[in-house]
Design a protein that fits this description.
- By secondary structure, the protein is α+β, with helices and mostly antiparallel strands.
- It has one domain: CheC-like (Chemotaxis protein chec), CATH 3.40.1550.
- The protein has seven helices and six strands.
- Strands 1-5-6-3-2-4 form a six-stranded antiparallel sheet.
- A hairpin with a 2-residue loop joins strand 5 and strand 6.
- The longest helix is centred in the N-terminal third of the chain and has 22 residues.
- Keywords: Chemotaxis.
- One of its GO terms (biological process) is bacterial-type flagellum-dependent swarming motility.
- InterPro entries: CheC-like_sf, Flag_FliM.
- This is Flagellar motor switch protein FliM.
- It holds the Pfam family FliM.
C-alpha cells in the first residue's frame, strides 16, 4: 500500500469519526438539568416520609445519548414504568434497578436488620411489581411537582416492562436525556433511571433548553 492510499484511508476514517460524533452530539437541556437537580433534593424528604426510613437521594448523572444506547444501558431484568407525560403528549421511562427494588422491599417489610446480600437476576414476582410500581408513582408525583413552575405535567404509568428490549421510546438513533438517581435507603444503595426521549420533549423543548440564571424556577 502506497502513502497516497494510506492517506485516503486515514482521511475516510477521520471523516467517519466526525460524522459519528456529530450524530452523538446532542444539545443540552439546561432547565431540565436544574429540574432534576432540585427533584433529587426534594425526593429525599418525600421518600423518607413514604418509606419511614432515612433516605438520601443524589443526581449521579445527567447525560444525552441515543434512545438505543439509553435503553441498552438498563439491566435485564429491571422494573420499568412506561409512563405517559400527559401534557407533553409523549412517553418516558422510569426504571428501578433490581438492587433498589429489593432494598425497597426489605424496608417495606421490616427487613432493616437483615444484611444486604447479592442476588442473582430473576423474574420479579407480582407483589414485587406492585410495590415497585407504587414507588415509581410516588417518585413521579414528586417529579411532576418539580416541573410545576417550569412546564406543568402529569406522569401516568401505562404499564410495566421488565425487559428493556421491549421498550419503544423513539427512533433508535434519536436523542434521549438520561437522569440517574443514586438512592441510599439506610445504607442500601441502588439507582433509579429516567429516560426522556426527544419525542416526549418536543412540545417543551424551547422551555427546557433555556439557561437558568438563578432564583426561582419559572420566575
Amino acid at each position: 500500500m502506497n502513502e497516497q492510499s494510506q492517506f485516503v484511508i486515514d482521511t475516510r476514517a477521520v471523516e467517519e469519526l466526525i460524522v459519528e460524533r456529530a450524530k452523538r452530539s446532542y444539545a443540552r437541556l439546561p432547565m431540565l438539568e436544574v429540574v432534576f437537580d432540585r427533584f433529587a433534593l426534594s425526593l429525599s424528604q418525600a421518600l423518607k416520609t413514604y418509606l419511614g426510613a432515612v433516605v438520601d437521594v443524589t443526581l449521579a448523572k445527567m447525560d444525552y445519548l441515543t434512545c438505543q444506547d439509553a435503553i441498552d444501558s438498563l439491566p435485564e431484568p429491571a422494573l420499568i414504568g412506561v409512563t405517559e407525560a400527559v401534557e407533553w403528549g409523549g412517553t418516558i421511562a422510569a426504571a428501578l434497578r433490581p438492587e433498589l427494588l429489593y432494598s425497597i422491599l426489605e424496608i417495606t417489610f421490616g427487613g432493616r436488620t437483615v444484611p444486604e446480600t447479592p442476588r442473582s437476576p430473576r423474574t420479579f414476582t407480582g407483589i414485587e411489581k406492585r410495590i415497585g410500581k407504587a414507588f415509581c408513582e410516588r417518585t413521579l408525583a414528586e417529579l411532576s411537582a418539580a416541573f410545576e413552575k417550569v412546564t406543568p405535567v402529569r406522569f401516568e404509568i401505562g404499564h410495566l416492562e421488565t425487559n428493556p428490549k421491549a421498550l419503544m421510546l423513539g427512533p433508535p438513533t434519536s436523542s434521549c436525556a438520561r437522569a440517574v438517581l443514586k438512592i441510599n435507603i439506610e445504607d442500601r444503595v441502588g439507582e433509579m433511571v429516567f429516560l426522556l426521549p426527544t419525542t416526549a420533549l418536543d412540545a417543551v423543548g424551547d422551555v427546557l433548553s433555556q439557561q437558568f440564571t438563578g432564583g426561582q424556577l419559572g420566575g
